[in-house]
Amino acid sequence: MLERIDQQLFLFINSLNSPFFDHVMHAISGRLIWVPLYLAILIFLGIKYKRKFLIILIFIILAATLADQTSVIVKNLVHRLRPCYEPSLEGLVHVVNGECGGKFGFVSSHAVNTFDVALLSLLFIKRRWYTISIILWATIISYSRIYLGVHYPGDAMCGSLLGAFIGWSIYRFYVLTDNKILKYKSFFNMPKTTHQKGAGLESKKTGSWRYKNRGNSEPFERN
């Protein structure tokens, strides 16, 4: 029943195509086109977390490897044919540039990988505009796989949930590591500069002076 609904939904989405969007979706689904985005995310994290970025990078690599390999394992366990290989859908699937990919499609590796990147990075960056943008980015890439005829909506949806779970889990693992280990290591905790210490001391002195003189001020004399 669910599989039948998934097929019908796929045929509807896949039928909404045009030569222009064939080029757009094919480009969006590429991997190299997003390298600048990945580099920008890494640079931002490096600036924000400074020395801790060395450890964060290890967790990012772990998450990326886990997401990619898990999707491959699930494909080989479930053995669900991609729609472009499904005999019952022969002649009904719109495939762009004749590219269909491997034989099995559940779950979508693109969906797993992009939602892993999205969840993990938004938890580190913690900016509302970024959260909305990166989730939209991952959703569009997942949609492109349906448009291109290589995945059912169920493949993309389950892949996105799996990727989000992996990203969230790796982030929680990092937080645990940070709380148990990193915060006790001086190398990962940047000491305050002389300027910062002086500003803090001045702030305390000012606060103390204000406290002592509270209530002692006299009203201005009226002319």
Structure in words:
The C terminus is likely disordered. The protein has one domain: Vanadium-containing Chloroperoxidase, domain 1 (Up-down Bundle), CATH 1.20.144. 67% of the residues lie in helices and 0% in strands. α5 packs parallel to α7 and α6 runs antiparallel to α7. It contains eight helices and no strands. The protein is mostly helical and 223 residues long.
Structural class: mainly alpha
The helix fraction, in percent, is 55-70%
**Count of discrete structural domains:** 1
Unreliable stretches covering 5 or more consecutive residues: 217-223
Mean pLDDT: 87
Give a concise summary.
Helix 3 packs across helix 4 (53-78) and helix 6 (128-147) runs antiparallel to helix 7 (153-180). The chain has helices at 2-15, 19-28, 35-49, 53-78, 109-125, 128-147, 153-180, 194-213. The protein is mostly helical and 223 residues long.
How do the strands and helices of this protein lay out in sequence?
Blueprint: H1 2-15, H2 19-28, H3 35-49, H4 53-78, H5 109-125, H6 128-147, H7 153-180, H8 194-213
Helix pairs in contact: 2-6, 3-4, 4-5, 4-7, 5-6, 5-7, 6-7
Defining traits:
Vanadium-containing Chloroperoxidase, domain 1; single chain; 223 residues; disordered C terminus; mainly alpha; 8 helices
